[in-house]
């Protein structure tokens, strides 16, 4: 038989990840009863893989903050309750006063998402108060660096220069910290969204409202402060945005679809925005002719507002993206690097090349038929470059878990190890820690050093305990 590489894909493959991004200034309100439209739960054609949700003006009163410190805040709990039955797990979150950023992913993607850092950047009150600023989650997604930023910039028409200063400040502060994280401008993808508070210049209130009424947005776009800034600032110009084919999302009377009718009568504006920036890829000419260019591209599928929600003076905005990752190109790249390492005559590779992570670091297997009568034996193998820790653990979860701490039971890998040989390890879970239910379960391997899930099993069932029941003839019969 020919030698088979167990890590090699059986056929050329690529992966398209669908990411749904939401930004909403919720004006300290509680979640409404139905967010299906915002989360696009009624759109069966989307087949989403990740949710990225950014909220501004969360209730940050003293009692609310104390409660949210001890328990999940109402919005996080709401999103977890809605998304967990659909196999979405909360991967990470970060909060700074009224700013909240949440990342959810379907469970099969967990071994390929590594949370690198979470960060808060206050810019209010001379940079010390977190009512304005940004929160950031930096992660590795299938081997690529992705930086996600939710921000709330200064309000009012006259503060445009201050908004741009805060934008730059948030960007610069991403580079303060760990030395093993690339400069944020070297990240493969930046998703930046929030209540940016940019306004519409020059035109009066009557003209703006009539233009909105007649759906004539072109003149308003030209005077949008963010669009003007992008025409003048080369760095800001690198951030892309979809077309604004929806009416301005601020400012509305609460519990209505009417723009501001108060005495101030604030002028409507597109304050709520979603931007993205892809790192410039090396030219194809820098690769060998036989080597495909690793494919990492982002395309916008939709960019819309959700006008039916009236709890806030802002309307939420969402963007749905397709992220293309070509695993087959990554495999050829890995082969090319191996050839280079073993043959001195092979031309040197471009230093920017890197293989995409397309296999999990840990492969989990449950042994045989699992029942609640015996200890469960778990086998797992690891990739050669994985460094285990005595603090690593394997969790047993019910399918539909909300987050990684939602385990039914767990074991320390080192303490419960049964055997280890040729890259195959075995641990056990005591029968006393196995619930007797008809639910489906998952196993997750959590790496303490990487602070991330690095392996996940397929769903399975655990057979309940056999109970002996006497029959009418007095003979004991097994019953499940």
Instruction: Please report which band the strand proportion falls in: under 5%, 5-15%, 15-25%, 25-35%, 35-45% or over 45%.
Output: 25-35%
**Spatial ordering of strands, largest sheet:** 3-4-2-1-11-10
Uncertain spans, ≥5 residues at pLDDT below 50?
1-13, 282-294, 329-355, 467-471, 473-480
What is the mean pLDDT? 83
- The CATH top-level class label of the largest domain: Alpha Beta
User: In angstroms, what separates the terminal alpha carbons?
Assistant: 44 Å
Indicate the radius of gyration in whole angstroms.
26 Å
The helical percent reads 10-25%
CATH topology of the largest domain: Deoxyribonuclease I, Chain A
- Overall shape: it is elongated
Using DSSP, what is the number of strands? 22
Number of domains: 2
DSSP summary: helix tally: 9
Give an overview in words:
The chain is α+β, with helices and mostly antiparallel strands. The protein folds into 2 domains: 15-282 and 291-327, Endonuclease/exonuclease/phosphatase (Deoxyribonuclease I, Chain A), CATH 3.60.10; 362-461, Sandwich (Immunoglobulin-like), CATH 2.60.40.2840. Helix content is 16%, strand content 33%. The protein contains 9 helices and 22 strands. It has helices at 62-70, 74-83, 124-127, 160-173, 205-213, 218-222, 225-232, 234-237, 327-342; strands at 15-25, 50-56, 88-96, 99-106, 113-123, 129-141, 144-152, 189-195, 272-278, 296-305, 317-325, 362-366, 376-382, 393-398, 409-412, 417-421, 424-429, 440-447, 452-456, 460-461, 467-470, 476-479. The strands form 5 sheets. Strands 3-4-2-1-11-10 form a 6-stranded mixed β-sheet, covered by helices on one side. A 5-stranded mixed β-sheet has the order 5-6-7-8-9. Strands 14, 15, 18, 19 and 20 form a 5-stranded antiparallel β-sheet that branches. The chain is elongated. It starts with 14 loop residues before the first strand and ends with a strand. Residues 1-13, 282-294, 329-355, 467-471 and 473-480 have low confidence and may be disordered. Keywords: Cytoplasm, Endoplasmic reticulum, Hydrolase, Lipid metabolism. Residues 15-329 form the Inositol polyphosphate-related phosphatase domain. It is an enzyme of class 3 (hydrolase). GO terms for molecular function: inositol bisphosphate phosphatase activity; inositol-polyphosphate 5-phosphatase activity; phosphatidylinositol-3,4,5-trisphosphate 5-phosphatase activity; phosphatidylinositol-4,5-bisphosphate 5-phosphatase activity. Pfam families: Exo_endo_phos2, SKICH.
